[in-house]
Design goal:
The complex is a heterodimer of chains A (163) and B (186). Chain A has 163 residues and is α+β, with helices and mostly antiparallel strands. Chain A is built from six helices and four strands, in the order ααααββααββ. Helices cover 59% and strands 10% of the residues of chain B. In chain B, α2 runs antiparallel to α3. The chains are: A alpha+beta (163), B alpha+beta (186).
C-alpha cells in the first residue's frame, strides 16, 4: 500500500510539473482571463490530471493528450492574432446589449438575454434601471463580462475638468 | 502504452477540442459561470465527460452524445429563460435584497445564508465604506452582490461639476454690487 501511496505522490508531481511547464510554454493568456472556452479547457486539463494522479491512466497518455490540446490551443491563438476574421469566427464579437439607454432586442435574442438579465448585468455595475439613460453603450464581451460606456456628461469628473 | 494507442489519444484530444470549441461558441456568451451558479456546473459537467473521451475510457460516440445532450439542454434552458420570464424565475430564482436604504435586511440575509460580516466584506470589495451609502444591495442570480448607491453617494459626474461651477458663477454675479447702481444714495 505504501508503494502505491508513493506512486500517487510521484504522479502528482509529474502532473503538476507537466501542467506548469506547458502553461509557461503556451503563454499566460492561455487560460487566465479568457473566454468561456479557455475556462472549459482548464477544467478538462484538470480532470485529465486527476486521472493520472490516481493511476487510472498511464503518464504517457496524459502527456500526449495534454500536448495535443496545448498545441492546438496555441495554433488557434496564433490564427486569431493573424486574422481578425478567424478571431471573430472563434470568439465571436462583443454584443451591444444597450445603446443610448435602450435595450437592443436583436442582441438580446442572439445572446438569450431577457430584460431582467440586462437589468441584473447593469445593477452589478451599479447602474439601476432608472439610470439607463446615462449609459451610451453596454456590451457583453467575449469572456461573458459586461462593460459599460457612460454618456460623456455622466462620466466621472476628473481633476482635468477643473481647468 | 504503445505508440498506436498514444496516437489515438492525440487524435481524440484534437477531435474533442474542436467539438467543444463549436459547442461553447453555439451556446453563446452566457454559457459559463456569469449568469447563474448552474451555468458553472454545466461547464464542469461538460469538462468531466471530455477527459474520459480523450483517454478512451468511454467510446467516443457515447461521450459525444453525452456532450451534445447536456449542451442541448443548456441551450433549451437559456432560450426558455429568455422567452418566458416565469420560467427564468423558476430555474434561476430572483434577486434577493440583503441591504435596503443603508439597513441590513434580515429576511434576505437568512434566505441567502449571508452573515452581516459577509455583506460588509462584499461592500468593502466594491470600495464602499459603509452600508449607509447603499440604496439597494441584492444577491443576484449568479450569486454576486449588486450595489445601487444612494444618489448622494454616487461618484461626482462631469455634469455635476458643471452644474456646481455654473451655480457658483451665478451666485458670484448676484453677490457682486451692480457697477451702475453701486454707491448711489438710497
Amino acid at each position: 500500500v505504501s508503494g502505491e501511496l508513493l506512486r500517487i505522490a510521484l504522479r502528482a508531481v509529474v502532473a503538476y510539473a507537466a501542467m506548469l511547464g506547458l502553461l509557461r510554454l503556451s503563454g499566460k493568456r492561455t487560460v487566465a482571463q479568457g473566454t468561456a472556452f479557455d475556462f472549459v479547457l482548464a477544467l478538462i486539463v484538470g480532470d485529465m490530471a486527476d486521472d493520472l494522479i490516481l493511476g487510472e491512466v498511464p503518464a504517457s497518455a496524459f502527456l500526449v493528450g495534454l500536448a495535443a490540446l496545448t498545441t492546438l490551443h496555441v495554433l488557434i491563438a496564433w490564427g486569431k492574432v493573424l486574422s481578425a476574421r478567424f478571431d471573430r469566427l472563434v470568439d465571436g464579437a462583443p454584443a451591444v446589449v444597450l445603446r443610448e439607454g435602450e435595450a437592443q432586442a436583436d442582441a438580446l435574442r442572439a445572446e438569450h438575454l431577457s430584460q431582467g438579465d440586462v437589468e441584473a448585468l447593469l445593477r452589478l455595475r451599479g447602474v439601476p434601471r432608472e439610470r439607463w439613460s446615462e449609459v451610451q453603450a453596454a456590451r457583453l464581451e467575449d469572456d461573458g463580462m459586461p462593460t459599460l460606456e457612460m454618456s460623456p456628461p455622466s462620466r466621472p469628473a476628473v481633476r482635468g475638468d477643473l481647468d | 502504452m504503445d505508440a498506436h494507442e498514444l496516437m489515438w489519444t492525440a487524435v481524440r484530444a484534437v477531435g474533442v477540442y474542436l467539438l467543444m470549441l463549436v459547442v461553447i461558441r453555439l451556446l453563446g456568451k452566457r454559457t459559463v459561470g456569469n449568469f447563474s451558479a448552474f451555468d458553472l456546473l454545466v461547464a464542469l459537467m461538460l469538462g468531466e465527460v471530455v477527459d474520459e473521451i480523450i483517454y478512451g475510457d468511454v467510446p467516443p460516440v457515447q461521450g459525444v452524445l453525452a456532450i451534445l445532450v447536456v449542451a442541448a439542454l443548456q441551450y433549451g434552458n437559456s432560450w426558455l429563460s429568455y422567452r418566458h420570464p416565469r420560467f427564468a424565475r423558476l430555474t434561476e430564482g430572483e434577486p434577493t435584497p440583503v441591504l435596503i436604504d443603508g439597513v441590513l435586511h434580515e429576511p434576505g440575509m437568512r434566505k441567502e445564508r449571508m452573515s452581516a460580516d459577509e455583506v460588509l466584506t462584499a461592500l468593502r470589495l466594491q470600495g464602499i465604506h459603509g452600508p449607509e451609502d447603499v440604496k439597494l444591495g441584492q444577491v443576484e442570480t449568479d450569486g454576486l452582490l449588486s450595489i445601487v448607491k444612494q444618489d448622494w453617494a454616487e461618484p461626482l459626474q462631469k455634469r455635476d461639476l458643471l452644474r456646481a461651477i455654473h451655480a457658483r458663477e451665478r451666485d458670484a454675479a448676484r453677490a457682486e454690487p451692480d457697477p451702475v447702481t453701486a454707491g448711489r444714495p438710497e
